[in-house]
Amino acid sequence: MPERVEPEPPYFHIPEAEIVKMILEYFDCKMMSASLLSLERESGQTNTDFNEDLLFFRQLVLDGHWDDAISYLEPLSSPPFEISVVPMKFIILKHKYLELLCLQNMSSPDYLEQQEDQFTVELVTECLDQIKAYAPSSKAFNSLKLLLTLPKLTDSPEYHNWNPSLGRLLCFKQLLPYLDPIINLNEQEVNKNRTSKGSRLIKLITKGLLYEACVEYCAKMATDPNTARMSLSSLDFLGGKSLQYCTSFF
């Protein structure tokens, strides 16, 4: 009698891009900007469904090409978009200014030559003059100008956790609401790639841990139902304490 051959279990192929996008979403939610940008560069993936134009503009901002990003905005004030680019220019120049301040704060005789240090000061002054032309109010401008008096940018409560990569990511997020007309107009051109949303990675991990707990619980029920308990300690509920449910709960 021929030996019975068990069928192989079904093989599910999970595209690597799907995994990367879930990790990118997690990094984004946790504001782990440096890790997010590094993974984007290494994988070539983004957790977005933007068209090529918006992706190009996003990359300009994330790479810190501030002047190029402003130049990109200029045509948007004309038909068919007719977007007011003034608030967007303010946002971009503000983040450019913050980066220059960060560089200036790092300056020292051992870190930069005196000539380079002077060049940075000139750039800060020039950027501040540009900001004044686009600032929504004198209060907004003065609050940025006041940052010059701080030894370090991170001494400001508002920018306590600020760093260049996080600043660039926040800059693009602040620009997005103004770009809605472009997103809506080009909606049909967008490649509707699947994106990760709603903390998908955490949800999948939670479901996986719950599944493992259920498998272990069922195995215990089959051998010793009187002492079977479901342990969910892996989910770190209640400050790391094990959360156990007695069999009567089910």
Describe the model:
- The chain is an all-alpha fold and 250 residues long.
- It has 10 helices and 2 strands.
- A two-stranded antiparallel ribbon has the order 1-2.
- Helix 4 (66-73) packs antiparallel against helix 5 and helix 5 packs antiparallel against helix 8 (164-175).
- The radius of gyration is 26 Å and the shape is elongated.
- Mean pLDDT is 80; it is low at 108-113 and 237-250.
- Helix count, per DSSP? 10
Strands, total number? 2
- Poorly predicted segments: 108-113, 237-250
Largest sheet: 2 strands, antiparallel
In short:
This protein is mainly alpha-helical. The protein has 10 helices and 2 strands.
Features:
single chain, 250 residues, mainly alpha, two-stranded antiparallel ribbon, 2% strand, elongated, disordered C terminus
Please render the helix and strand layout as text.
Blueprint: H1 16-29, H2 33-43, H3 52-62, H4 66-73, H5 86-106, H6 114-134, H7 138-145, H8 164-175, H9 180-185, H10 200-223, E1 229-231, E2 244-246
Antiparallel strand pairs: 1-2
